[in-house]
């Protein structure tokens, strides 16, 4: 990273100490860092004991064939038992596991005892349909409780689930079903989005024309809309589950038994099926949820707004919270249906104490205005989380002030589908937080920043984020493609690059810097870093500078090929409600970036638009904007949350129709 842009982030001097009361009663204190650094494996062995094992592991890490790890390999457990039955057995059967809030305003609360019955019936239904341990099951559902039940039912019988986000096209679903070789699909007639039923089943019907191996489709009735049914293949979820016994004995599975495959889109190439296994994954998902959110299962009401089709939904709606016996909210729909205060209404209704959401959502709430959250009682909130992208300081401070009443600590959690669980994050009762920084590797996690040659950079410098020790919830491989696993993550630095280097280094693909205290600041995907007249400039920093101007609500920055400077910075901005597009404003924004980051970072062009192309997890697809900036036809849009957005953007640009 160039030094001029680094200097900018170093200017962020605001600091926020943890609230004294939270610190005094925190689940995890400063001592955990020292304990874990003295004996990292002993630390994880202790965290594994937070779970119930059918056979306790005696071995912690087997790293004899790096970078293929085995954690707790001689232990046996059942993940669903850990998430459901053991809480009932401990006398918490009457505790609510899920408060479901449907978009149309319907809902139901499900206790742990009820969840146990539902998961057992679904497990029995899967068995009746011929699904066996080791088979793959694709899940294509809206955000309804059945999504959680379906995943846990798979885990219970040892089937490996592959959840595909409900917004993906038939083609995207088909390629994922084929790659995982799934034998059964669980879907629904539809779900509610933006005030109306939106069909899901037609995409499955279309996809399955190309997937002859799929034997059955289980269909949940959510909307009641007209749905085509293929005799012999399709089965209604309610019909088959109703007649099942609510007794099912969970099988003890090997710690390394495959729990799920989740496809990450990646910027290029075919999606990668990230494989996660059971014991290590659950250990870290469970521990981090307990530590980073300071979860008190008796009193907290937790809400993660992610979709189940994103890794955040897997680890922090299903496995982390349920393994900890949490009470949580699951919300089906969009944040502005039927009104822009819907999230805050939900917080008030259920007394949510811990909220976990994404920077893109926070910036949208900022754009809608401070007066909207102000109408609701948000005083129950005590910890706020952020995930998915670097959070710009502007949004961080707004989140703290307007949602957290200037009191609730923010935990900015860095992790990936591949890491399975959180890796770098403040701890709410320990860390003095800095707006925009994920700060410090969690206890038991080793991460640093290296330069092009893989050498650790000194404090105050930038480079690439690497993970320097294996961790329990790490991906085990890319499904069916060990070589791609090695090439993508382990060949850029360390032993996989240079055999004389004894150390294995996981390359995360993110740019990062260390500040003077050694705290880590994430700078976005390395593929997105721009090279302008020989200077590396991170898209994140230019975007953050633009959003720092009062007229700008959101921005996305790309480097477009330029004959003179190599790459030129092109910015797409969404204005706030009270600002209008004009030449003066564009000039002012360019100057504002110049003043904040230095003249080299001034965008060559600024284009005002009303939408930005995003994945469902809120990540901007810069690749598509680069296509526009370089005048090419727009590439593959199948992983966009809303595929019509690219047409909208193009029609708003000069020469657009
Ligand atoms: C959990 C998740 C992973 C990529 C990751 C990074 C970005 C996620 C972040 C963050 C800065 C954070 N990312 N959290 N960047 N600060 N707190 O998002 O998984 O969808 O696989 O994306 O997201 O670029 O490499 P996934």
TrEMBL record:
Record keywords, A-Z: Acetylation, ATP-binding, Ligase, Magnesium, Metal-binding, Nucleotide-binding
Cofactor: Mg(2+)
Binding sites annotated in the UniProt record for ATP: 388-390, 412-417, 510, 525
Keyword Ligase listed: yes
E.C. number(s) listed in UniProt: 6.2.1.1
GO cellular component, as recorded: cytosol
EC main group: ligase
Post-translational modification (record): Acetylated. Deacetylation by the SIR2-homolog deacetylase activates the enzyme.
Domain of life per record: Bacteria
Gene Ontology BP terms: acetyl-CoA biosynthetic process from acetate
SUPFAM superfamilies assigned to the protein according to its UniProt record, in alphabetical order: Acetyl-CoA synthetase-like
Modified residues (N6-acetyllysine): 619
General function of this protein: Catalyzes the conversion of acetate into acetyl-CoA (AcCoA), an essential intermediate at the junction of anabolic and catabolic pathways. AcsA undergoes a two-step reaction. In the first half reaction, AcsA combines acetate with ATP to form acetyl-adenylate (AcAMP) intermediate. In the second half reaction, it can then transfer the acetyl group from AcAMP to the sulfhydryl group of CoA, forming the product AcCoA.
NCBIfam families, per database record: Ac_CoA_lig_AcsA, PRK00174.1
This protein's name: Acetyl-coenzyme A synthetase
Organism the protein comes from: Kitasatospora acidiphila
Record lineage: Bacteria, Bacillati, Actinomycetota, Actinomycetes, Kitasatosporales
